[in-house]
Automatic annotation (TrEMBL):
It comes from the Bacteria. Keywords: Signal. Residues 1-27 form the signal peptide. This is Secreted protein. It comes from Streptomyces griseoaurantiacus M045.
Length: 114
């Protein structure tokens, strides 16, 4: 229980500092159903950052803190990768919705998985 409380306290600290919050619901562009999207810092989503097909997608000029939105259906997930072409990747994230903002400067590709 202590670990959970410390994790919640840490998350609250990040949210209070504005580091883990998504853009306001009114300002944010929705991610289309069936896609994974990367939001710009102003809450918009560029068409080049909407991904529908499974497999690796190399990123270009995606830097700074970004929010990823998983709008895929059927339990499909995604991975964030340090290398191009889907190498050196994170675990698979399957939950739908907005993820906490992270620094995308070292991230070079996303992999969509069924």
């Amino acid at each position: 229980m202590r670990k959970i409380a410390m994790t919640v306290a840490g998350a609250a600290l990040l949210v209070g500092a504005g580091l883990a919050t998504a853009p306001g619901a009114q300002a944010a562009t929705p991610c289309p159903s069936g896609a994974v999207c990367i939001r710009e810092t102003n809450g918009t989503i560029l068409s080049k950052n909407i991904f529908y097909s499974y497999g690796a997608h190399n990123l270009s000029n995606v830097t700074g803190y970004r929010v990823v939105v998983n709008s895929q259906t059927g339990g499909a997930g995604f991975q964030e990768c340090l290398g191009y072409n889907g190498t050196n990747c994170s675990p698979v994230y399957r939950a739908t919705g907005d993820y906490a903002a992270i620094d995308y400067t070292p991230i070079n590709s996303l992999v969509l998985v069924p």
